[in-house]
Design a protein that fits this description.
This protein is an alpha/beta fold. The chain has helices at 8-27, 33-52, 56-63, 71-78, 120-125, 133-149, 166-170, 173-186, 201-208, 226-234, 240-247, 251-257, 275-293, 298-311; strands spanning 79-84, 97-104, 107-114, 153-159, 191-200, 212-216, 220-222, 262-264. The protein is 52% helix and 16% strand. The radius of gyration is 21 Å and the shape is globular.
């Protein structure tokens, strides 16, 4: 278990528990179950209290935790018979964007997502989940196919933002994001988006302009990272914590403002502590959202989606 800085009290308790168990296994010492039980209860309470009162800055680190399940983990856990498709038919393949077709609990669906990678090799392969224009054009191609064949679209969002490199800009990054966003809004089939960790800027909204937008409890969703916002506003990235608070990018803030539709609960201690539990919760949330949307006509879906986004900010 890799602990975050603010988890130090919990880390110390769990380290003590591990030491006691190792000692008992090694020396055949008398039963220490009672002592271990007390420490486990104490650690559990400390963890619940800590995660019930996370600051926006702390949530930013939880959302970025490298052990948090990523797009491919959710695809493996929720989508059967998944068949990935590659390429945008214009320039090439972008491994940052996962796209394809499969079955969600027996129902044929299209799946889009950003994959950050779980180790160094995978992170480099997937460009840390930061898509290039060809990734968004691939997403647009998949959405058009889904619309043609009447398949709901599930988007799994986890990106710090679109890739800002010179090559991406030369190949039309802004245009690709805009067209992908437009493809989301134009769908005549239900689309559901889940912010798994980070939902960064246009890189996220390009596949998240959906009928239902949900966020995991400790995810973040914003137009810019706290570090970048601090650099722009105050010319001081050290004020990122202040920026994180001001930006209102947590799931709780965004639900209150009407930017998202619901929050998906995470296991105590974050999705990285119970990956299977987090994946199961997301699956249940997606199933419920698709059930709500299943009876709507293409026109009703488009109109409801448009009204949803036009209404953001009206009541603030």
């Amino acid at each position: 278990m890799r602990y975050l800085d603010f988890e130090k009290p919990v880390a110390e308790l769990e380290s003590k528990i591990a030491e006691l168990r190792a000692l008992a296994d090694k020396d055949g010492a008398a039963s220490i179950d009672e002592e271990v039980g007390k420490l486990e209860a104490k650690a559990g309470i400390a963890l619940r209290d800590l995660y019930a009162n996370l600051t926006p800055w702390q949530k930013t680190f939880v959302a970025r935790h490298q052990d948090r399940p990523h797009c491919l983990d959710y695809v493996a856990g929720l989508i059967s018979e998944f068949t990935p498709l590659a390429g945008d038919r214009v320039f090439g393949e972008d491994a940052a964007v996962i796209a394809g077709f499969g079955r969600f609990r027996g129902q044929p669906v299209a799946v889009l997502g950003q994959e950050k990678g779980s180790d160094t090799e995978a992170r480099l392969k997937h460009n840390f989940g930061m898509a290039r224009p060809e990734g968004y054009r691939k997403a647009q191609r998949i959405m058009e196919l889904a619309d043609r064949f009447g398949l709901p679209v599930i988007s799994l969002v986890d990106t710090a933002g679109a890739y800002p490199g010179i090559g991406a800009e030369e190949r039309g990054q802004a245009e690709a994001i805009a067209r992908s966003t437009d493809a989301c809004l134009a769908l005549g089939v239900p689309n559901v988006a889940v912010i798994l960790g980070e939902g960064g800027s246009g890189g996220a909204i390009a596949i998240a302009a959906a009928n239902r937008v949900m966020m995991l409890e400790h995810a973040i969703y914003s137009v810019i990272s706290p570090e970048a916002a601090a650099s722009i506003l105050w010319r001081d990235s050290a004020r990122a914590q202040e920026a994180a608070t001001a930006m209102k990018s947590t799931a709780q803030d965004l639900l209150r403002m009407g930017v998202i539709d619901s929050i998906v609960a995470e296991p105590v201690g974050g999705a990285h502590r119970d990956r299977a539990g987090a994946i199961a919760n997301v699956g249940a949330a997606i199933e419920g959202a698709l059930r709500e949307l299943s009876g709507l006509s293409p026109v009703a879906l488009r109109d409801a989606r448009a009204e949803k986004f036009l209404a953001i900010g009206r009541k603030l």
